């Protein structure tokens, strides 16, 4: 079904015709056809994929990402220019097995999405920018040096969800972070550089093109990495035109039909929704990929399109669990503990 998410800024899909998929032995394979309803926040689940089991669970509901279609479309539009997400692929999609995608490519794409979410949070928070810089300066101090495993461990130990997403997502995507300049009075002068740790070489005209994603820790610098390098390549695939229908000239849109493109349009619509990402108030929220964890509005859709922007919990299950927990702690209560 073609439609729009609740009060969108960019047209997208509210449901997709896809195929249930499953992941085994490093590949996500296409399964039987199905229709999936979308509520506009599926990208917040996708960003949490960190294992083959996570990938299989997400693919079972949402199907394949459509990496081949996305890569072909963007290379057709941008001759000789591969966007960051495409350079992260472990192999050219033409080498994929029939109706299958590598789990490793799923994990890297999920990492880029998580990194983008963290950058969105860092954009509006000077405190998060300071926390990110402080964490990055510790990357070489541990016994593992500046390895991706060390980066992921430091990210997981941070109290800032933005730091966890930026550095943890980057590690999941195979990007190693390093502070390029020392701390100065002007925070904007401090720059974190992300370099591929395990990506294949990219050559153009016989020359190796080295990728450096620069993150200047100031609003403009953050937006350049977030918008220009991570989000805009997906929005360039949304094309507006006019068409003649039933005696009238009306607007027409060409939209990506691959799941990964749809998820990035959801992300862009979220950025334009005038709602800052926030952490679920349920302290035992399992987070992604089972629940958003960091969210914009309460999970689910209503007939009126209400987004519950003042919600404290990312999912009705978290709200229910928190209510049960409060009841259990009240005097005289004999209820069992709430399930997370």
The figure for the number of domains is: 2
- Percent helix among the residues? 25-40%
Structural class: alpha+beta
What strand line-up does the widest sheet have?
3-4-5
Number of strands: 14
Strand count, sense and barrel status of the largest sheet are: 3 strands, antiparallel
Poorly predicted runs of 5 or more residues: 1-7, 183-188
Element order, helices and strands? EEEEHHHHEHHHHEEEEEHEEHEEH
The 3D shape can be described as: globular
Oligomer: single chain
Number of helical runs? Answer: 11
Strand content: 15-25%
As a whole number of angstroms, the C-alpha radius of gyration is 21 Å
Question: Averaged pLDDT, please?
Answer: 85
Through-space gap between termini: 33 Å
Question: Any key phrases for this structure?
Answer:
single chain, three-stranded antiparallel beta sheet, alpha+beta, 2 domains, 11 helices, 38% helix, 340 residues
How would you describe this protein?
- With 340 residues, the chain is α+β, with helices and mostly antiparallel strands.
- The protein has 11 helices and 14 strands.
- It has helices at residues 42-46, 52-62, 67-77, 84-87, 103-123, 126-136, 148-157, 161-173, 219-235, 259-271, 316-329; strands at 2-3, 12-13, 15-24, 27-37, 100-102, 175-179, 191-196, 203-204, 207-208, 213-216, 239-245, 248-254, 278-279, 294-295.
- The strands form 6 sheets. A 3-stranded antiparallel beta sheet has the order 3-4-5.
- The longest helix is centred in the first third of the chain and has 21 residues, at 103-123.
- The two termini are 33 Å apart.
